[in-house]
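Example 3.2
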Amino acid sequence: MVARKSFEQDFCPSARALDVIGDWWSLLLVRDAFEGVTRFSEFQKSLGIARNILTERLRRLIASGILEQVPASGGGARMEYRLTAKGKDLFPVIVALRQFGERHLFRPDEAHSVLLERSTGQPIRLELRAQSGQPVGPDETVILKVSDPN
């Protein structure tokens, strides 16, 4: 098996984030956690993922502080997986992936799930805005890169 390259010390925030959450199983587990899935068996049923892969992904998400394992609300020996505050910060990432999928991966007449604001029932739309409040896209931004001091 080829060793996985780590981006833990990379100067790019995107590379560091992908080091933690950059495989599809991890992102789908986070998506399911946002939808209220909490138990190992529920994640396995939702994703059709092999037990060994699910175990490893859950371990990595816990080790990175994205999920935490807590006693099940019904008591007993069972444990549940819950998003931490750090994990909840991935919500805009999941919404951005969803919006990309809606825009580019479905036919206009094809049915798909819709993310709605709970209190109003209105669709959610993620937009990037400058501090001035103006919408920004890739043409209006620049990345200030840091040089490796070594």
